[in-house]
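BUG: 3D viewer hangs when loading the predicted structure for this chain

Environment: internal workstation, default settings.
Expected: structure renders.
Actual: progress bar stalls at 90%.

Input used:
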Amino acid sequence: MDKLPMTRAGYAALETELKQLKTVERPAIIEAIASARELGDLKENAEYHSAREKQGFIEGRIKELEGVIGLAEVIDPTSLSGSIKFGATVALVDEDTDEEKTWQIVGEHEANVENGLLNIKSPLARALIGKDEGDSVEVRTPGGEKSYEVLSIVFK
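Structure tokens produced before the viewer hung:
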């Protein structure tokens, strides 16, 4: 399978979540299932069914995280420079509204638009790859065509 590009911070966050699930969440749900079993008839035991459902979610997430971490290729953005590529923090200005935004281009498993972390597979990130400061970028978004100008590129 292909490697999954990821920043060091994104990798650490996934490892932390995995550790939390294995050392805290998993034992807690096992205890909850045991407690619910003691209440008697399992067919109509809502606590038991809820705990089993949560256990399934936790086990599924553990498997997913282990797979992602196993395929991760950690890339240190501070060792990069030049035009926009994975790991770049890019300041853009919307050419229509003059609204400025800053994005860091990261792997899909660490992307979080609210925190300015843009998925490398997103239309905007794909349009930005290879561009330099001062370049204009046209992007087709769900809201229509957008034009951005690249103000700065930083690798931090």
